[in-house]
Specification:
By secondary structure, the chain is an alpha/beta fold. It has a single domain, classed as P-loop containing nucleotide triphosphate hydrolases (Rossmann fold). It is 44% helix and 11% strand. A 4-stranded parallel beta sheet has the order 9-4-10-11, with helices on both faces. Bound molecules: adenosine-3'-5'-diphosphate. The site of adenosine-3'-5'-diphosphate has 22 residues, from helix 3, helix 10 and helix 17.
Length: 415
């Protein structure tokens, strides 16, 4: 592997005082450990149809997306799994579901009224959501069709049972809630960075393999460009959510994050050099526009399997986009959940204000498998749309607008 890297085009980032070297592999730039991890994932990672992969270029809202989807997964899986699975399998009457959904309070994540017998054993695996896209409006004119929610009386296509450790309703009662979920929602005690809850396939494969042993469905993430994803991701038909963001804000966010992780003070780092590199396509997972175009093309070819979401749109209408996300991953909110404010609670829990104020995100560190650690606070800077206006000159704005016009014209994408 070492020998191979010597043959690749490489670039030492001068604005980071040479503390970061990027290599171009399969058409994209990245640091060596990330490329090595991606190669390892290509060789070893076995995706399953029930997996959900959250993909993105760095600095586009990955942390937020991880928090939102994980919390949605957790709330539906932990609290409502028994009921929603049953409903999806066509065994539970709506009134029963209403009754059960009234029996929990998401704000405390406490289950009450747990005296009933299990409706279904949690060893029942979820069924694979059929690939039946319905048209959906996209904010950019991008055709990001989403599948319809699983019909209540649909004939389930159940994969062979996999060792699914989700507790039965009885054991749920005894266990109250999983430790990580407790940590996630308890600000003052030990808490957890969203990245520690949703591992990257290219840097934390080991964790994913462990999750796979223990569960029949997993949530994971990747910054790897679509064309370099492990073949099993495509072959398995697992679902992909891709988030992207206004390029100018990504450039600024990337400037601050890169500087922070290599520990070079702002006064020593000229923004114009960082801008120029990004503009040339040289950035982690860059060229940024090619990263987006790869996923957009795939989403058009495989509607219903890949959902494109724009950070700014998520911000502008978080409620309907969170519902859309939940539907897409196969865990739509019930009317009763919506009426009881579950969606808003998830949104508030994952808001920038809440997450950035958690003690763990102010003072904790995220340890990666390659022995590096990143301070959690670096993932939460301003989350402000249009922050680029504080850094860009008129000339930079013009250059980027022209570039984006050239690269994305006719794609329906707006950056
Ligand atoms: P800024 O640097 O513009 O503040 P990523 O998670 O892909 O690394 O992206 C990081 C960007 O997302 C940062 O943008 C960060 O502040 C913002 N972010 C982090 N958590 C967020 C949240 N809960 N809601 C909205 N934006 C968030």
């Amino acid at each position: 592997m070492e020998e191979m890297f010597k043959t690749l085009p490489q670039h030492s980032c001068s604005w980071l005082k040479g503390r970061m070297t990027l290599y171009n592999y399969q058409g994209f730039w990245n640091v060596q450990p990330a490329h090595e991890g991606a190669i390892m994932a290509q060789q070893k990672f076995k995706a399953r149809p029930t997996d959900v992969l959250l993909c993105s270029s760095p600095k586009t809202g990955t942390t937020w997306l991880k928090a939102l989807v994980k919390t949605n997964f957790a709330s539906s899986k932990y609290i409502l799994d028994v009921d929603t699975f049953h409903a999806r399998l066509g065994h539970t009457s709506v009134s029963k579901l209403v009754h059960l959904s009234k029996s929990f309070d998401v704000s405390n994540f406490k289950c009450e009224n747990m005296d009933e017998e299990p409706l279904v054993d949690r060893n029942d695996p979820p069924h694979v959501v059929p690939n039946t896209p319905v048209s959906s409006s996209s904010n950019d004119g991008v055709d990001s069709s989403v599948p319809s929610p699983v019909p209540m009386a649909a004939e389930p296509s159940i994969p062979p049972p996999i060792n699914n450790p989700l507790p039965t309703r009885k054991s749920t009662r005894a266990a109250t809630k999983p430790a990580w979920l407790k940590d996630f929602v308890t600000p003052k005690s030990t808490t957890t960075l969203p990245h520690a809850l949703v591992p990257f396939i290219e840097t934390e494969l080991h964790k994913i393999e462990e999750n796979h042993k223990n569960s029949s469905f997993s949530l994971m993430a990747s910054h790897v460009p679509y064309t370099s994803l492990p073949e099993s991701v495509i072959a398995s038909e697992c679902k992909i959510v891709y988030i992207y963001r206004n390029i100018k804000d990504v450039i600024v966010s990337n400037y601050h994050f890169s500087r922070d992780i290599v520990d070079v003070p702002a006064e020593n780092v000229p923004f114009d050099e960082a801008f120029e590199e990004f503009y040339q396509g040289i950035s982690a997972c860059g060229p940024y526009w090619d990263h987006i175009l790869g996923y957009q093309k795939a989403s058009l070819e495989r509607p219903g399997r890949i959902l494109l979401l724009k950070y700014e749109d998520l911000k502008m209408d978080v409620t309907s986009n969170v519902k859309r996300l939940a539907e897409f991953i196969g865990y739509p909110f019930t009317i009763e959940e919506e009426n009881s404010g579950v969606v808003e609670k998830i949104i508030n829990l994952c808001s920038f204000k809440n997450l950035s104020n958690l003690e763990v995100n102010k003072s904790g560190k995220h340890h990666l498998e390659n022995d590096t650690a990143i301070e959690n606070r670096f993932y939460f800077r301003k989350a402000k749309d249009g922050d680029w206006e504080n850094c860009f000159t008129d000339e930079m704005k013009e250059k980027i607008d022209k570039l984006i016009d050239e690269k994305l014209s006719g794609t329906g994408l707006v950056l």
